[in-house]
Amino acid sequence: xxxxxxxxxxxxxxxxxxxGAPLDVCGGCARFGKIVSRPQLRNPERKxxxxxxxxxxxxxxxxxxxxxxxxxxxxxxxxxxxxxxxSKKLNERESFMQKIESGQMKPSIEMARKLxxxxxxxxxxxFEEGEVPIETPKSKTDGFTLGDFIKDKRKK
Length: 156
What we know:
Strand content: 5-15%
CATH topology of the domain at 61-129: 434 Repressor (Amino-terminal Domain)
Largest sheet: 3 strands, antiparallel
């Protein structure tokens, strides 16, 4: 059974205009607006037209390789650049480059493409929808989350 768009109760719904917005509401919430139409009784003998399933196309996904940090650091060192020089060349902050090279921060696809161009490396790969590699989930010891700091009053 459908749910009312105002209170969430599952009931027979009517179309009503409440404060200028057309909504599907239950009988109790319909009093707050003007009823536009009531539900029509369905004819059980009438069959609904079945839609043909839409063809799915494979979607290409760009993913950053797991060893991006090591590749970026090695390529920068091969060019003989310090983090400071390289970050100025990219017009980025040095702390940003430090986080990328240490693996603390994963660069955006746009930033990864920028790094690829400057360092002549490959850290972004294209995958089809079915062949996307599964990344292993991080263990609990990898760091803190916001939930680690919240005190739950219900757990007393």
